[in-house]
Amino acid sequence: MSRVLIVGAGGVGQVVAHKCAQVPEVFSEIMLASRTKEKCDRIAAQLPRAIQTAKLDADNVAETVALIKEFKPDLLLNVALPYQDLHLMDACLETGVHYMDTANYEPLDEAKFEYKWQWAYQDRFKEKGLMALMGSGFDPGVTNVFCAYAAKHHFDEIHELDIIDCNAGDHGQAFATNFNPEINIREITQRGRYWERGEWVETDPLSWSMTYDFPEGIGPKKCYLLYHEELESLVLHLKGLKRARFWMTFSDQYLTHLKVLENIGMTRIDEIDYNGQKIAPIQFLKAVLPDPGSLGPLTKGRTCIGCLMKGVKDGKEKTVYVYNICDHEACYKEVGSQAVSYTTGVPAMIGAMMMLTGKWMEAGVKHMEQFDPDPFMDALNRHGLPWKEVVK
Ligand code: NDP
């Protein structure tokens, strides 16, 4: 029986609220707080049981501290934007509450995707006996757990890791992103990076691609090498790793639009002066693009995200592919969101459940692969993200 404060009422917040409400034996009291209270109230009205809602500016530490003191949660589950991570961690430290998120901290004016800012909280969380769980979404999140699972059950050493994220869905729009457009475009337009023989190798943005034949009828799709934040912790924690890469599928239509937007300066994250007002072009772009939440009823098809791992067991070479396939329309039917929000929100709920039931609890700033993967893998099967494996 625990109290959870969910911060952020966007696409992912909607799924997290639904999924936590489905597990009253763990989440006995729920509060959903976000910048726009109406969004929290709209989500609350869809749920099978009553939850509390509140207006909160998560960048204002004093405001979060006051809300925590009023609601007294055991855990703060952060599904606002990466910019809020440090402010929310500060509020948790001040009030003695465990913390969890789904994306690493990013400064507004730099698209960096590094854990260094959150790792700097290690000693403070340890001293207070509090845990901060990093990145409990799908990627990062489930992908880290798939690696831990394979390391525990299939390999003595994993030598090569390819995380492959495929969205084979179609929303019928000329150009739209499936989660927050600003965060999504910042991630895709940065330089690519992968890890090989102990060092990071950089590539030009979206300059490397491969075709991967996805299972269960999804078929071959072009995937592009990106840097993704889970690589940073996985290269530290996976024994014997020689190469780690991350790939994502994009359609030609998506990439053509993105190229044009980039070429004309619309993806810039630095502020420009417009009629005496400072605006970052990417924030203006976000305001004119379709709201990812509005894509829910329009999106058809499936996502397939998995980890392809090569390594050795008892001196023999082995290949293991662990993956989940998720259907956009089935997600919308269950929780009113498409699969990209669903595949993030379900693991966020499960990460919170692991912490609150004591299955994963250790003071400090922690990553998903540092814990026993078995209870998490079991919970994925029970809460809407069943996984499969192919072992060769
Ligand atoms: P949305 O933009 O749909 O939602 C973000 C929510 O946060 C909105 O409700 C927004 O409020 C709220 N918010 C923003 N700033 C503040 C603030 N200062 N104080 C309070 N609330 C605030 O994003 P998503 O739901 O798509 O994504 C949520 C998080 O999930 C992001 O961090 C994203 O990076 C992460 N993510 C992780 C994935 C993974 O697999 N690990 C995959 C996809 C997303 P308002 O409604 O007023 O704008």
Automatic annotation (TrEMBL):
Pfam families: Sacchrp_dh_C, Sacchrp_dh_NADP. Residues 4-133 form the Saccharopine dehydrogenase NADP binding domain. Residues 137-385 form the Saccharopine dehydrogenase-like C-terminal domain. InterPro entries: NAD(P)-bd_dom_sf, Sacchrp_dh-like_C, Sacchrp_dh_NADP-bd. This is Saccharopine dehydrogenase c-terminal. It comes from Desulfoluna butyratoxydans. The lineage of its organism: Bacteria, Pseudomonadati, Thermodesulfobacteriota, Desulfobacteria, Desulfobacterales.
